[in-house]
Amino acid sequence: xxxxxxxxxxxxxxxxxxxxxxxxxxxxxxxxxxxxxxxxxxxxxxxxxxxxxxxxxxxxxxxxxxxxxxxxxxxxxxxxxxxxxxxxxxxxxxxxxxxxxxxxxxxxxxxxxxxxxxxxxxxxxxxxxxxxxxxxxxxxxxxxxxxxxxxxxxxxxxxxxxxxxxxxxxxxxxxxxxxxxxxxxxxxxxxxxxxxxxxxxxxxxxxxxxxxxxxxxxxxxxxxxxxxxxxxxxxxxxxxxxxxxxxxxxxxxxxxxxxxxxxxxxxxxxxxxxxxxxxxxxxxxxxxxxxxxxxxxxxxxxxxxxxxxxxxxxxxxxxxxxxxxxxxxxxxxxxxxxxxxxxxxxxxxxxxxxxxxxxxxxxxxxxxxxxxxxxxxxxxxxxxxxxxxxxxxxxxxxxxxxxxxxxxxxxxxxxxxxxxxxxxxxxxxxxxxxxxxxxxxxxxxxxxxxxxxxxxxxxxxxxxxxxxxxxxx
Length: 473
Fold this sequence. Notes:
The chain is of the alpha+beta class. It is built from 14 helices and 16 strands. The N and C termini lie far apart (82 Å).
């Protein structure tokens, strides 16, 4: 196949790789029992490698000046270099599992091969297993990768062994799986709000001239982002090491999240982000940090800019916005309403398009200039916070039911923490990845997020109970 240059944004993510911050999306499928390894291999081969060219291509650097990297078929491609089987060491408990996934999250991908791997982890207590995926961000963003990975799955427990299928059948099965995703997920909403007009400003200068107010808003947001001072110094900021550690929350029933949402007329995203902010507040106090009422720490939030019908198109097509998390607010309901106010402000702005433009420019710049720009903007935040909506009903992989899906987002520049929100089959989970030298116990952060949500739900139930009390005559 002919060489195909990486897009500017994909090239930017490729060059962001650093030994202390790998540009790799790590995630897992959890199963309650064993998985047929041969069927798993066949599924990945037929539905991923044979279907999507990126998964049998490697990235090569051009020897010509002013030419960027390009995709090219790997002439030595071997599935055995990408799918592995691991026995979890004794005692096979959750702590051992998290240690194993943390090690995988800290290990770079082999750039002499296509940039992805799957690891089936077995021998867990209780007989379960985990399939861990490691995929480079240069292949695609989280929305696209999740859509592609979902095409590996089936909606029926008795689905047949995977076989090569015509394009029409593949597209039909992909649509069937994607139909299970929330139709108006919060992650998409902000992107849709700016995509229709903001992208036209970016791609069609004439359109921008006709809409002077929007153009002015675009430049104002660019100036705001550039002039933002460095984020507040907390224990979450500092020199990074190569060791990353991961954790995830227990299931938070989506029904309970929606109960809070409907009571206070906010979004599901507002509820969970407020719980995350509260969890970070508790962790700072737990570590002995002074938390003033006015304290906020900033998160870089990816916002999807692609149409929903192109969710499975590989590549990176998202912008970044800066969200200040009100971690200083002790009252969980006040904090949630403040999160809603700040999120609403971002949804109505072109900041996501500004972020996409900056990524485009970084991808066009020499590597050294990109590194300087990356560090300049990364110092303005503390973490990456992302929300990817998943299927609303249970799926099956290689004939086995998927009990839980989780992923962790990479942190560019000198950011030492990533928080990922994912909903699947009636439950919401939050994943936390931290730099070991800054926050060695992300499971404590996950536990605090759970406690914050429990408090929010308890307050919600109390308020609803009070509102239904009969009025005395």
